[in-house]
Structure formats: structure tokens, C-alpha cells
Amino acid sequence: MDTTEIRLDGVRKTYPDGTVAVDRLDLEIRGGEVLALVGPSGCGKSTTLRMINRLVEPSGGVISVGGVDVMGQDPVELRRGIGYVIQHVGLFPHRTVAQNVATVPRLLKWDKARTRARVAELLELVGLHGDTYADRYPHELSGGERQRVGVARALATRPPVLLMDEPFGAVDPQGRRRLQREFQALQRDLGTTVVMVTHDMREAMLLADRIAVLSTGGVLEQLGTPDEVKGAPANAFVADFLADFGEETAA
Predict the structure, then answer these.
(1) For 98-142, how does the pLDDT look when each residue is reduced to its tens digit (9 = 90+)?
(2) The last residue of a domain, from among 130, 158, 186
(3) Interstrand relation of 20-29 and 6-14 (parallel, antiparallel or unpaired)
(4) Do 73 and 97 reside in the same domain of the chain?
(5) How many domains does the chain have?
(6) Structural domain span for residue 122
(7) Which spans in 66-142 are helix H?
(8) What positions does the domain ABC transporter occupy (predicted)?
(9) Are 168 and 74 within one domain?
(10) What mean pLDDT is reported for the chain?
(11) pLDDT confidence tier of residue 85, bands split at 50, 70 and 90
(12) Residues with Cβ within 8 Å of residue 55, at least 6 apart in sequence
């Protein structure tokens, strides 16, 4: 990939029963930014996210990552170059923390010394010191610790793009705010392009450089900085959506 910009041009997703999840969405995600996708349930946020790495195949339009059409790439190879973090992490329960973080490097046939060094580096990066955590299993970790392992695994091969679907949703509120701030600092250091789906407007306001507000059918109602979206809603839909969160967005 030449750059880490992501473009969606006229992207559509229609399911066999006729349901239109996303209809002709145009969206540009700048290299190195955090873009949050927000909107009511069923507006196509997660579908849009998953079309970028072809976990969901688009019905039409063009999605490009670094100037390359994702539909022209092998989906497995595409996903190995894009980090992916989901709410419930999806760690392998019978593999240790170190083995989980090493998943993609092993698939890419990194040698053992390089893999060990990268795992140790990542565990330090997410605040899980290897001496304490490397040999633990997922069931021995708290929810917040499992999320950290999930982020470390997603960053293992330094992907230029990171997709996050409700990444901190399973963590208690106090731990969630701490993880959000730690992730914010980490992303700034790495310069990774991040597309994040969240139902938490406070999270979007805190972490995102820009926010895309979607309505049913994946219609883009507004795209702007947190201050622009909060201070000047583009239309009644956005204003009503923000009003549902009240004091959350005022915090």
C-alpha cells in the first residue's frame, strides 16, 4: 500500500432479502487519522467497517486502501495487512497471551526470534509486562486486559490500517476511559489510520479526529471534527441524534 488513505466511492451493500444496509456511500478516511462511525442501530456502521477488509463483500462501488481496490486483492492477504479489533476480542482461549499476539507473525512465517521480540515490544506498549502476562491464558485476564491483548495482536505486524468495532464496549466504565486515553496516545505515536465504530458519543468525541454520522441505509448525514458535529449539526437528524446523548457529549 502506497499510503494509508481509505476511500469509499458509491459503496453499496444489499442483502439477498432486499435489505439495503449501505446505499451509495462516499467517504474518505485520511492517512493517520481516527475516523469514528456513529449513528443509530442498524444504520450500516459495522457493515461499512467490515466491507473495508472484505469480511462483508460489497454489492457495488469501489473501496480502496492505499490507492488499491480491495476487490482486486486476495481477501486473506488483505486482512493480514489490516488490524481488526472487536468488542469481545476473539482471543484463542487455549493459547497464551504471547501466542495470541504472535498469531499473524506466525502466519507470515516470521522467525522465532523476531516474533518473540515483537511480542515483548507490544506487550510493553499496551501496558502488559511480558514477565507477568506472556504465559497467561485469556480466562486469567480481566476484560480490560483481554482488550489490550486484542489491540496488541491487531498491531503485531505494524498494519497501516486498524479497524475497531466497539473495541472497548465489554470493559467497565472506569477501565474503558483509561483504555481510551491509552489508545489515543498509542495511535498518535504510531500514526495508524483508524476506522472505529462506536455507540458511545463521548468515546467518539474523545478519540476521533473526525466523526461520520450515518442514518439508516448507511446515508452520510455529516462528516466533520467533533467540534463541528457538536457545534453545528448539519441537519435535524444529526441534532436529534446528538440530543439523545445529552450530557454525554457536553462532558
Answers:
(1) 999 999 899 889 999 999 999 998 898 888 888 899 999 999 998
(2) 158
(3) antiparallel
(4) no
(5) 2
(6) 91-158
(7) 75-80, 97-101, 103-107, 112-125, 130-133
(8) 6-242
(9) yes
(10) 89
(11) confident
(12) 79, 84
**Do 3 and 66 fall within a single domain?**
yes
What confidence score (pLDDT) does residue 2 get? Answer: 41
* pLDDT higher than 80, residue 67: yes
Other Cβ atoms within 10 Å of 204 Cβ, number: 26
pLDDT digits (tens, 9 = 90+) for 16-25: 999 999 999 9
47 in the same domain as 58: yes
Specify whether the CB–CB gap between 134 and 123 falls below 8 A: yes
Helix (H) or strand (E) holding 21: strand 20-29
Picking from 102, 124, 158, the residue at the C-terminal end of a domain is 158
Integer angstrom CA distances of residue 63 from 31, 81, 152: 15, 15, 26
Please check whether residue 21 lies inside any domain of the structure: no
Query: Cα separation of 99 and 158, whole Å?
Result: 17
- In total, the chain counts a number of residues equal to 251
- Domain assignment present for residue 190? The answer is yes
Pair (145, 172) in one structural domain: no
Which pLDDT does position 247 carry in this prediction? Answer: 46
